Amino acid sequence: MPSSERLSRFQLARLILIQEIRGLLAAPALWIMLIIVSLLVGYSFIQAVELFSQASRTAKSFPELASGMNPMEGIFVPTFGAYYLTETLLLPFVAIRIIGLDKQSGALKLLLQLRLPPLSLCGIKLAAMGIVWLLSLLPALLVLVFWHHLGGHIYPPEIAVLFAGHGLYSLAVVTIAMFAATISDSLPTAAMICLAVTLGSWVLDFAAGGQSGALEILGSLSLTGMLRQFEGGLLSTTLIAAFLSLSLLFFLLTAIWLHPGRRSAFKLRNSLMVLLALGGLLAGASLAPRYVDLTENRKHSFNPADARALRQLDKTLTITIHLDPQDSRFLDLEHDLLAKLKRCVPKLELHYAATGSTGLFSAAKIDNYGLIEYEYNGRQDQSYSNSQNEILSIIYHLAGMRVTSEPVPIYRGYPLVADARSNRWWFYLILPLFFLGIGIPGCRGKW
Amino acid sequence: MKHFRGTHSQAEGMIQKQPARGLRIDRINKTFGTYRVLTDISFTVVPGEILGLIGPNGAGKSTLLECITGLLPVESGTVSWEDENLSRQRRQQLLWYQPDNILPFAGQRVAASLSFFRRAHGASEADLEQLVDGLDLSPMLNKPLQALSKGYRRRVLLAIALLSRQPLLMLDEPFDGFDLKQSLAVMDLLRQCRTGRTMILSIHQLSEAEKICDRFLLLDQGRMMGIGTLDELRRQAGLSPEASLEEVFLAII
């Protein structure tokens, strides 16, 4: 018998982590994904800068338009759209390998005999995937550097939320891929299951756009819908809890179902327990939501004085809206005001009255189409306006409050006319060659 | 098909005669859906012994090894070591099972894979060097496992298994893919490594099993047809002392 240099569990875990990273770096799928992400990010960035510059030219002529020139919305969200595509369509093919390839090659049978429980093994595999995923951030970091170099403005908290959103989205995709690989007999089946979830989420979000009721709720709870809320710069505890619960659910399901020596009854019982526990956790988190508006223009927030006043409303504020959910006025109202009211007013009831109109230019089938009714503490008022100031005045009037806005810094926007085309070689040539340069030896088993 | 009369009672009788040392398998049953793969398998393996699991393809040899390791759940039955019923954690400490037809970390260099398992098993570099020399793996160390011939892949797997430090080693078809000379060399290596270890070898080539195993467990269609030394099996089959394992096997099943 060989002489012994027994490793501690921590040392064994570190050894397996290095082995997993090595395995991922030997995957052609990873390097192909990185090259594609580099090309897509580069293209998106150059296009975004071009469009932003066009709009900025107008904004420089008409300064009142400048406040709409927000680099987060004009540059970073569109550029990071490339990441969404990659995370949705390509990341599953890399992530399924960390379980699927070991199952297919038989390595899993050996790993499961080492002195680590399946939960630890899954944790190590997830950590390895997370470390390798950091490589994909290289194009994004280049975007930040180039945008800064072009004289563009960067507001770090907004960028941090965007990174966090994509990080959580990727985490969810990876854990779904791990579970898909665990319950599948082959890598193609696992890939199809994972893509069905990510693409299904995309389709659901698309179908739910401009809809109301259950479809709207489902759409906002889809992975794509949740990511979009991060892109808006609003940090929500409910959203973070939802992403983490979903990821934790699939991670734990993977750990439960990974070991082939466990009985089906054990797997089903534990899966149910995990599902109930995480469902309860998520329900708890959604009962007391907290929001942090990390946008520079504070677009998700009222003036601090308004926010304080609205939080003091101790009776139920009822708002009845006679607008079609697909009407642009309704969408403006929802995004500019109702969403903020939902976060501030402790007892808010929204009623969406049935309407027959389909939009601004179609004939309303009811006389009060467009009307918004307000009721607070037995007092009522109504208006056709969807202006924030006017609506807040109505609410304060109903509540018998006088609120004076606090002076806040005025967001003036950051218009910039620039040309990012000179950076294209970095995304189209240098970075892909860099990935090829370190990827080819990895794929040949040199590491 | 002949059935070894009184398989269960005799197998159990043999178990009762054995001291409570080593591995004890008691009434393992395994089904896949409605198909019964293993039926009431009971036997013991004493420390230092090499037990050959003998049977045709599909007899249930690999399934039995996976059930013992805990890589497959069983419908009933227990696995114990020194009278201790083994949990999954204890099996990880005491048993190492090397499956057949696997290609772990196929894209990595053989040296990297062996180094990983050496460290994971807690073996020394000298142990690895000895195995690399013994299995003539030196020319292949810088190649990925997937680029090797079947014979070399088998040697790498054997090296991985022999790096393990668990007292019970279970190898699935360790001689498959080797020619006669290579098989003999591997047998020599296994004999060198048997000090302080117990081995269960799943073998379908009877001539090779006869050369290395101390006792044999004959399996057919998931049933235990007999267990014992070659002489005991010859007597049980009513054959002459010169009868080969192949003749014994054919007489018993």
What is the oligomeric state here? heterodimer
Percent strand of chain A = 5-15%
The CATH superfamily label of chain B reads P-loop containing nucleotide triphosphate hydrolases
- Strand order in the largest sheet of chain B: 6-7-8-3-9-10
Number of strands of chain A: 6
* Whole-number tally of structural domains of chain B: 1
Keywords:
heterodimer, A: 447 residues, mainly alpha, Glutaredoxin, 2 domains, 4-stranded mixed beta sheet, two-stranded antiparallel ribbon, 18 helices, 6% strand, B: 253 residues, alpha/beta, Rossmann fold, 6-stranded mixed beta sheet, 4-stranded antiparallel beta sheet, globular, disordered N terminus
Textual characterization of the structure:
The complex is a heterodimer of chains A (447) and B (253). With 447 residues, chain A is mostly helical. Chain A has two domains: 9-294 and 423-443, no CATH class; 304-399, Glutaredoxin, CATH 3.40.30. In chain A, 64% of the residues lie in helices and 6% in strands. Chain A contains 18 helices and six strands. Chain A has helices at residues 9-25, 28-61, 71-89, 91-95, 97-105, 107-111, 118-133, 138-149, 156-183, 187-208, 214-221, 223-231, 237-258, 264-287, 304-311, 328-344, 388-399, 424-443, and strands spanning 234-236, 291-293, 317-321, 348-352, 372-376, 379-383. In chain A, the strands form two sheets. In chain A, strands 4-3-5-6 form a four-stranded mixed β-sheet, covered by helices on one side. Chain A has a two-stranded antiparallel sheet with strand order 1-2. In chain A, helix 16 (328-344) links the parallel strand 3 and strand 4. The longest helix of chain A has 34 residues, at 28-61. The mean pLDDT of chain A is 90. Chain B is an alpha/beta fold and 253 residues long. Helix content of chain B is 40%, strand content 24%. Chain B has ten helices and ten strands. Chain B has a six-stranded mixed β-sheet with strand order 6-7-8-3-9-10, with helices on both faces. A four-stranded antiparallel β-sheet of chain B has the order 2-1-4-5, with helices on both faces. In chain B, helix 4 (110-121) packs parallel to helix 6 (150-163) and helix 9 packs across helix 10. Residues 1-19 of chain B have low confidence and may be disordered. The A-B interface holds A 1-7, 12, 15-16, 19, 22-23, 26-27, 102, 105-107, 109-110, 112-115, 117, 259-263, 443-447 and B 66, 69-73, 88-89, 91-93, 95-99, 101-109, 112, 116-117, 119-124, 126-127, 143-144, 160, 162-165, 167, 193, 195-197.
